[in-house]
Write a structure and sequence with these properties.
5 helices, single chain, about 60% helix, 2 domains, mainly alpha
Amino acid sequence: MSADTVRLEQAFLSAVFSHTLQNGYIRTNEIREGFKTAKCYPKEARISLDEQMQRCDAAEDIVKAGNANPCLLPWLYFVLETGARPGEAAKIELAW
């Protein structure tokens, strides 16, 4: 199981125990007091400016070699500048 799944299940069980604690069915919330999990950190999915430039240079080399559609570079620059997802950018029409 992932750490997030364990954390969510712990939160659910803690809420159930808190409810029973408030209603006097138990004396302590064992989940909150005795169960520790590792902290979850979200993955950072951004690339640096240097990495972005390396990818643009590689795309230019591919287009110059004739191994790609010449529309690749304008499309790539559009995606990078607007933050559009590739699937969204692929559906864009010139008439828009």
